[in-house]
Structures are given as structure tokens and as C-alpha cells.
């Protein structure tokens, strides 16, 4: 019990946005007057009048050497890297081919698809007006074949990222410089791990990766912004970026692992007796409240479901964040475009929908994303049922290996979700600031690793099961 209490206390402390504890050198940054001049230029580009000129994102061409199956050079390719202002400038087929090659079919990630990202843009969620200016990277060869793409945004704030850097922005301001705008490579509003540099599977894909990373650094320097952030990349990608001068930051989420379970009860038998009893008691409360749970996919999800779910989502955002990131139209469009990749868990009381949880289905993972309920009624344990237990049942039914239940929430542990490491990569134009951040990240990483060890050691499973 003492170990569990210590782990919970550590987790609570960790999950709160921590203040920046690094010490900045007095030589950090430019002079205040010079910093203000540069930042004002970018501000005019980003938030200026409709007549203001777009950001100059032109980049030089790159050349790579093509080799045969051995090491002999057999030709050279000219690669053109450009920045586009909307994902609509790339066809769904070409974008998705890059995304699928980057993940592989087994690890297909629905958040990287053209359908999901274009829904965010088309419905006014991830656009310039909300502080997310699309600036996606596209790499092509001489024949206009797309070899790689990157979801990239020029941002005027740090909201909707789930990797907290507000204290870094405060530190920048304290030295007379501006942190915003910055470049953010990510899936907006989505703390889901996956590759961020999406490259076709060619014999020279490693060279294309290097070219795109060079282009990302180049546009960061040319745009005179403070920094470039790549959040929730894969572990492999993060290590490759670290070798190219990016700072590595780790975080923590809670995931459920499917050990080839045939049923929910079989999963429960791997839990400690007290945890197993608690889960069964929570699940009994659902039927005791005359609630019926349903899992809907594709054509089963009607427009009325999305309208109800949007109300539930707004109830959550109004109580938790204060303003919604997503629009009503987003849910309708995303649901229409993504079909059976969408799993909507709903709770009904009689004929009335009273709660819902949105999930997307990947190659081997069920991704839990959003939850909401009727604003005027409280249903004990319904959140746990809709978000965690229904997701586990669905993963077992669909033979998926993992359920990712989103960011934060140490209460997930006793329900079978264990901590896993997440990654982000950060590139700063100011060397002094970057050095201070690096020192902070080393200390932060040791704290995160300690918390994860404590949580694993006091986990809900029987000994030998992880």
C-alpha cells in the first residue's frame, strides 16, 4: 500500500505542468530591440491584414545518390521540397501512400490519414484563424512523384499539443525574445504516437528522411521563428532526430496490452483480486442505472449520434478546458470520410443518448480519444465503462494488441492500463536557450523514469504479468 500511495503521489506531481527549472545564461538571445524587430515581421506575416504577403517558404533543391542492392552508385535524383498551405494540395491517395509506408499495414495509424487531417482543416479546427497555420512539407522527385510528406503547422500558441512548453515561452519572453510563432509537427489536438516524417518505402528512403529534416531546419531558420517541435513521434524516429541535433523529451501515457485474451473475464483473471473485484463492481453499476452500452461503427453512426456527441464533447470542454478545439462539422465530416475506422461507444437510458466515447481503429491499436456525457446528470462509473472497459472489450473482439487511452490519468492504472514512454523532439534556433532546455530535460527525464518504475512496481496485475 505504501508503494502504491507513493506512486500515485508521484504521478499526480508529474502530470501537473511543471515550472521550468533550468537556469538561462545571461547571454541568451539577441538584444531586446533586435528580437522585437524580427518577431514583429513574423507577426505581420501571420496575423496581418488579408493583403499581407505569405511566408516565404522557398527552399533549394536537393540531390541524392541512388545505389543498387550493393553500394555502387547507379544514378542521381533531384528532390524538390516545398511547403503547402493546405493538405488539399495533395491527393488523398498520395498522402495516404506515404503514411502507410511510414507505419506499415500492421501499425496503420488513422490520425495520419488525409481523411482525418483534411477534416481538421476543412471544418475550421486546424487553420490560421485558430492559430494553426498549415505549412505541410512535400518532397517530390523530377517526375513529380511524392516521396514524403510532413504534417506541419506554424503556431501562435501552445494549446492542443499535450506536450507542455508554456514555461519555455515565459522564459523566452523574460529575456526580451518571442517564443511564438513556432513550428509544430504533429497531429493537432491528438496525443497519439506515430511517425511524423512520412516517407515512401524506396531504396533511398533514408536519404529522403535526411533531406526533409534538413528542409525542416532550413525553413525554421529562414522564417526567423524560435523553434521547431515534433511531438509524439515514434521511438525510432525520435532517436534518429536526436542524432540530427534535436533535443529529446520523454513523457508518459497509459496503455492496455492484449495478452491474447479471449474475453474480458480472461483479462480480469490476470488482475490482483482487489482490482478485479473493483472493476466488476463498477461494471454492475451500469445495468443498475438502467443504462445500455452500444459500440457503433461506420454506417451505424447516424448524424443524430454526432449531434448528440458534440453536445457531450462541449460539456467536457466547458468544464475542463473552457473552449472547444473541434467543431460540430468536424465530427460529421470525419465520420463520413473514415467509415469503419471510427468506433463510437454510446450509453443509452431508454431511448435517449446520455454519453459517448470516440475511438479510432488502427492496424493493431484502438485509439481512445474523446469522451462526454449529458450535462445535467451524473452516472457513477459510466466514464470508466465507456472509455476503458468498452475499449478493452472491443480490442479483444477485434484482435487488437493495444488500447491507447489518451494523455494523463493515473486512475487508469487500477483498470489495467500501464504507463508507457512517449517522445517529443525540439530544435531551437538560439543555442543558449537550447542548452538550458537540454539541461532541464535531463532532470525531467530522470523524474519521469522514476515515476514509471514506481507505477509499474505497484501495478494492478498479478506478479509476472506486465
What does this molecule look like?
- The chain has 466 residues and is α+β, with helices and mostly antiparallel strands.
- It is 39% helix and 23% strand.
- It has 13 helices and 16 strands.
- The strands form 2 sheets. Strands 3-6-7-9-16-10-15-14-13-12-11 form an 11-stranded mixed β-sheet, sandwiched between helices. Strands 1-2-4-5-8 form a 5-stranded antiparallel β-sheet, with helices on both faces.
- It is globular, with a radius of gyration of 23 Å.
Name the features.
single chain, 466 residues, alpha+beta, 11-stranded mixed beta sheet, 5-stranded antiparallel beta sheet, disordered N terminus
End-to-end gap: 19 Å
The 3D shape can be described as globular
Q: What level of helicity do the residues show? A: 25-40%
Largest β-sheet summary: 11 strands, mixed
Strand order of the largest sheet: 3-6-7-9-16-10-15-14-13-12-11
Task: Summarize it.
The chain has 466 residues and is of the alpha+beta class. 39% of the residues lie in helices and 23% in strands.
List the helices and strands and how they pair.
Elements (H helix, E strand, L loop, with lengths): L1 H14 L16 H16 L14 E6 L5 E12 L7 H12 L10 H9 L9 E3 L1 E5 L5 E5 L1 E4 L10 H9 L7 E4 L12 E2 L5 H18 L4 E5 L3 H8 L4 E11 L6 H5 L4 H16 L2 E7 L5 H18 L7 H11 L3 E8 L2 E10 L3 E9 L8 H17 L3 E6 L10 E11 L2 H27 L9
Parallel strand pairs: 7-9, 14-15
Antiparallel strand pairs: 1-2, 2-4, 3-6, 4-5, 5-8, 6-7, 9-16, 10-15, 10-16, 11-12, 12-13, 13-14
